[in-house]
Amino acid sequence: MLRSNGRQVKTLSALKTAIEKIIGDVDIVSFDVFDTLFEREIEPPEKVKEAAARALSQYLNESCGINYSSSAVYSLRNLTEAKLRQKNGTEGKDTECSFTAIAGEMARAVSGETNEPLQRQIIKFDLDIEKDVIFVKEGIKEILQWLKSLNKRVIAVSNMYLDKEHFREIFKDKAIDCYFDNIYVSSENGLGKHSGKLFDYVLTKEHVPPQRMLHIGDHIEADYRLPIRMGIRAIRLYDVSHLKRKNILLTYNSLASKNPYWRGRYVLQLIRPKTAEAGSGNFYYNYGYSFLGPIYAAFVYGAIGEIKRHEIKKTFFIAREGELFLDIFKIFAPALLTKNEIPAADYVYLTRKSTVLASLCNGLTLDKALLGLCSPNQKGIYSILNIFGLYHKDIVALSGKHGFKNAEEPIWNFNDPRLAAFTADEKFQELVRKYAAADKKILERYLNQLNFFGSGKTAFIDIGWSASIQKFLQDAFTDRHDYPHVYGLYFGFSNLAQYAFDETRNTVVGVLLDQRRGSVVEQIFARFEELFEEGARSLHATTTGYKINSKTGRAEPVFKNDKDPGREVELLNNDLIRAMKEGVLDFSREFLRSVLLTGCTFDDIKPFIMTIAERGVAFPTKEEMNFLFKIKHAEDFGSKSVTDFSSDRINNPAIIFNPAGFKAVVKKSNWRYGTVKSMGIPGVNLLLRYYDIIRGL
Q: Which residues of 4-32 are buried (b: 16+ CB within 10 A; e: fewer)?
């Protein structure tokens, strides 16, 4: 669009073309700052003030001993700014004010006196957040370089409460300070662009007639119509792509203010795309960044909320999934918890395999023995004894006396009288107690090394599902008076009938999935448990027990042998697991930044995380299905079986015409949604999801 002395353009390339046509007739080129030189990664701009208020509130509470809520800080800032603007307005200036003055008044109000160190800290919080959320618009640096190559004087003119020195600091941080000869800002003299007074001031200071100055900005009135009326040449940058992104953010922010579901979407909208170098096109890295990352980050965020709420002072991140959760915790904790709230955090080699035998110090009941028969791949007495670490010749021989001639023969009848007689045999119970006592002794030494006993409120952070380790330790050591109150903070808790907990010493929390809540939506995590285990597992082998180091006298973990079939499979899969975890950690850093900017809580974010989980588990893309079917999962607890996800693939879609056969295949699948997806028939996943939800209601 062209009018006297003015043009409107929609892209940076069009902007340069428009400048080229008139650059010979101007001496000075003036740029608006925000939405012209810079774009913000968060909208609306008030979000910056809100984030700064949260940071200042935490600083006041932690470092100054001043109890000031973030909402109170935010209100104080707005009130202070309004008063200063009004004061300047009554003095004949525009209603502009400087952030230095705002920060000074805030520091005085909070501390009761002039407080320059606090004033500087208030300014620093604001500037640090501004630097973090703004970036130079793509293509602007090239235009600035070109103008300087023409020996044109380049200045910045902005309506903003930030002081000139603050702008200089930001320009330096963004590496564009070298292109600017001067900066004019409304806060400096209380003169604004909207009245024209700031432009008059600039023309006077620069000793330039209006027609020899070109101003470039985005605001239709302050950056375009008004300068034109003053005789200044003007180009309005109506950046369509920027406005589209900005409007998306504003829309999600508006939706989030009205409906909690959209808060999580708003948080994720602020996540910066991974760098071009990250992942280098690796599917598993990308999957970790885009799918597992949001879910694992939300889990640890929720666990930190529980740590804060229960004032937990010691945390144990349980092998093997706990290693990744600890890495995320180390990223989050310094920013989300005060120094006094951050608990001691240790990665510990506790597994079901390494703790279960000690829990049998009072014997093995028939009900508990049946746990060994829950797997579809169970091998009868062998599975029972192997799960509990009791596969010894004397016990196997004793089982033979009760009619089990083949220890690996599956037992499908849980009421088998031979099994009842075997577990009721006092000789069997005596052997169980003997082996359990020895195992308990070395496990106790390991726990003492960790200062587990007497540690007060203690958290276990793990993938969870059945909270087995927490129950096994309770059964083994509940007689100790110094047994701590253990808070199991689990990714998911889905086994309600299996274990009974002493609630005076145990609290169990399923952060993302807790079957006690009866949520059909949360059950999506239980539809592909192996994925969430495999995506988080450490690269080291499973802990199978402990041994005493003869030199140090310390109990050390014993790991599954690398020649074990399950371990060999894991070693072959380690590269893809490593890639997924790298993606998760890169995402987690962005996630933290986003929640700090928005102030959204775990409860705000969780509803949308459920949507992500449902999309990934129930409605995978063809690419996701194919790559996930390449994963193999080794069972950690009492089984040498290896789950090959590709065995769940249906290669002949015609099976759908055999309802009984189709149902049998889907029922035994580890990932039922992946199985039906593999048929390539549109709509089948939707039907399965509908059936799944109706069945769960």
A: ebbbbbbebebbbebbeeebeebbbbbbb
Q: Give helix 293-310 / helix 602-618 axis angle, nearest 10°.
A: 150
**405 belongs to a structural domain:** yes
- 161 and 88 share a domain? no
Q: Is the pLDDT of residue 175 over 50?
A: yes
Q: Domain for residue 511, yes or no?
A: no
Lowest-confidence pick of 327-331, 467-471, 518-522, 651-655:
651-655
How many structural domains are present in the chain?
3
pLDDT digits over 134-170, tens only? 999 999 999 999 999 999 999 999 999 999 999 999 9
For the stretch 477-498, pLDDT in tens is: 988 999 999 999 999 998 765 6
Predicted pLDDT at 641: 64
State whether 9 and 59 are in the same domain.
no
The number of CA neighbours under 13 Å toward the Cβ of 95 is 5
Q: Of the residues 405, 435, 465, which one is the last residue of a structural domain?
A: 435
Q: CA 255, 256, 257, 260 torsion: positive or negative?
A: positive
**Does the pLDDT at position 651 exceed 90?**
no
pTM over 0.85: yes
pLDDT interval class at 277 (50, 70, 90): low
What are the DSSP calls for 329-343, one per residue? HHHHHHHHS-TTTPP
Q: Is 469 left (phi over 0), alpha (psi -120 to 50) or beta?
A: alpha
Find the domain containing 220 and state its range.
Answer: 2-37+137-241
**SS3 state of residue 281:** helix
Percent of the chain with pLDDT over 90: 68
Whether residues 153 and 234 share a domain: the answer is yes
Distance CA 321, CA 340 (A): 26
Q: Are residues 86 and 215 in the same domain?
A: no
CB within 8 Å of 13: residues ≥ 6 apart: 139
Give the highest mean pLDDT range of 126-135, 369-378, 680-689.
126-135
Tell me the one-letter amino acid at 336. Answer: L
Residue the block writes with tokens 């001496």: 27
CATH classification of the domain holding 165: 3.40.50.1000
CA distance linking residue 450 with residue 472, whole number of Å: 17
Judge whether 251 lies within some domain. Answer: no
CA distances from 452 to 218, 312, 447, 460 (A): 61, 13, 5, 11
Does residue 232 share a domain with residue 168?
yes
Task: Return the structure tokens found at 599.
Answer: 């102030």
Question: Could you give the CA distance from residue 439 to residue 435 in angstroms, rounded to a whole number?
Answer: 6
Residues 114 and 172 in one domain: no
Q: Are residues 159 and 15 in the same domain?
A: yes
Do 383 and 638 touch, CB atoms closer than 8 A?
yes
Contact yes or no for 593/646 (Cβ under 8 A): no
Q: CB–CB of 407/399 below 8 Å?
A: yes
Task: State the amino acid at position 680 in one-letter form.
Answer: G
> Is residue 95 domain-shared with residue 227, that is, in the same domain?
no
Instruction: Return phi, psi of residue 40, to 5°.
Output: -100, 145
- Cα of first residue to Cα of last residue in the chain, in angstroms, is 59
* Of 78-87, 281-290, 303-312, highest mean pLDDT: 303-312
The answer to whether the beta carbons of residues 175 and 148 sit under 8 Å apart is no
Q: How far apart are CA 78 and CA 111, in angstroms?
A: 18
> Of 374, 409, 435, which one is at a domain's C-terminal end?
435
Q: Flag whether 209 is in a domain.
A: yes
Arithmetic mean of pLDDT over the chain: 91
Cα dihedral: 307, 311, 315, 321 (round 10): -10
